[in-house]
Amino acid sequence: MSESTQLTDDFVRVCAVEELPVETAALAEINGVPVAMVRDDKGVVHAVNDICSHGQVSLAEGDVEGCTIECWLHGSRFNLDTGEPTGLPATQPIAVYPVIVQDGDVYVSVSAS
């Protein structure tokens, strides 16, 4: 992913939309926070905390199907809209970050986390 730049005080440019393949996660670090970036099967861009709440491993290395990301280690699944677990063994949600798509670029804010 390309170098981050600021949109506002809270939102940081992460990448161009076209840099995010559909249903594939990519890892970004935003203000020191690891973030899994995903463009779902409908083209919607999501940003969630990259660390699985169950296994403490990178979700960006897992599979994406529709609006769900799956942890590669133990199979926990999370809803990309809400962060809520949709499959065990995870029982705790992951953080979901606001995304703005403007002029083909993706901006994310992790300041509310």
From TrEMBL:
Gene3D superfamilies: Rieske [2Fe-2S] iron-sulphur domain (2.102.10.10). The keyword Iron applies. Keywords: 2Fe-2S, Iron, Iron-sulfur, Metal-binding. It comes from Flexivirga aerilata. This is Non-heme iron oxygenase ferredoxin subunit. Residues 12-108 form the Rieske domain. InterPro entries: Rieske_2Fe-2S, Rieske_2Fe-2S_sf. GO terms for molecular function: 2 iron, 2 sulfur cluster binding; metal ion binding; monooxygenase activity; oxidoreductase activity, acting on paired donors, with incorporation or reduction of molecular oxygen.
